[in-house]
Amino acid sequence: MMGTDVPDGLRFEHSGSLAQRALQALAAGPLSTVEVAARVMGITGGGPAAARAVWALLGADARFAVSSEGVWSLARPAAAPVRKLRAEEWVVVDFETTGGSPKGGHRVTEVAAVRVSGGRIRDSYATLVNPQRRIPSFVTGITGITQQMVDTAPCFREVAHHVGAAVEGAVFVAHNAAFDWRFLCHEMEMATGVQPAGRQLCTVRVARKLLPNLPSRGLDALSVYFGLEIENRHRALDDAVATAHVLVRLIDILEERGVHDWEGLEMLLGARKPRTSRKRSASPRSMEAA
Fold first, then answer.
1. Based on the domain organization, do 278 and 152 belong to the same domain?
2. Residue 51: in which H helix or E strand, if any?
3. Separation CA 11–CA 234 (nearest Å)
4. Do residues 216 and 88 lie in contact, with contact meaning Cβ atoms separated by under 8 Å?
5. 278 and 248 in a common domain
6. Residue 284 and residue 51: Cα distance in Å, rounded?
7. Which are the contacts of 60, defined by CB distance < 8 A and separation ≥ 6?
8. 169 phi-psi bin (left φ>0, alpha ψ -120 to 50, beta other)
9. Is the CB of residue 174 less than 8 Å from the CB of residue 207?
10. What would the pLDDT profile of 121-130 be if each residue is shown by its tens digit?
11. pLDDT value, residue 271
């Protein structure tokens, strides 16, 4: 799992380096020079010194690109073919947890990863996880996962390799992706010392763009809208499968609206400017532009 060269799919890298932090930050979308300095390097206030520091860190690294306005993003490898959205390899991930934040000491109780390509579910992985702490009763009431169910389950470090293999090389997808991404980062770093980096997609965010008239873009609402059934709601595999079907339906709508590849999707979501405006600038003046 570790060290596999996957240029535009999910990969795992040792945490701690500034470049790795920049990869993680920019995976969610482009950032200005000031934002990179603050989020990646802890330099606040902007100014020429911050711009020079960002340029020294990222300017010569081919994994990053900067526009003439000083906006940084992940660079697509020059030789990489443009793939249609339907041909992309997606992995839809869902975590059930003891609570809302790993920073609050909450842990994973169940994980599922569903591979999607060509408009079809190709493979899946799911397991209960011993969170090594008590599950609050209200969480059990929501998920149906009891303490007895996880007490004999493997802890995350025992399944980390399987989780990594299940998600590596694909575009990370989740419903409310930031939540699941945080838990993936936290659990993988604690278990293995590495963290994920790569492209991410939130189906809630896409649904908000494509279906603005729906009163809710929650998984229940989208399942009703698309005529999907979720047998065991708030269980990782069932939710991941439902989200995978939602993803396929959203891709159908994207194609109907003329959005056929990742760049077009980023532009629709407002995370990327047209390719003509994303040229790498050789002039240090661009570092100061944001």
1. no
2. helix 48-58
3. 27
4. no
5. no
6. 9
7. none
8. left
9. no
10. 999 999 999 9
11. 62
- What contacts 24+ positions apart, CB below 8 Å, involve 219-228? 219/175, 219/243, 219/246, 222/246
Q: How confident is the model at residue 30 (pLDDT cuts 50, 70, 90)?
A: very high
> Is the domain of 116 the same as that of 164?
yes
| Residue whose token pair is 């209200």 | 138
- Contact 119/251 with Cβ under 8 angstroms? yes
Domain total of the chain: 2
Q: Are residues 140 and 283 in the same domain?
A: no
pLDDT of 164 > 70? The answer is yes
List, for residues 52-87, the tens digit of each pLDDT value: 999 999 998 888 999 999 999 998 765 556 789 999
Strands (E) across 86-220 are located at 90-97, 108-117, 120-128, 171-174, 194-197, 200-202
**Coil, strand, or helix at residue 72?**
strand
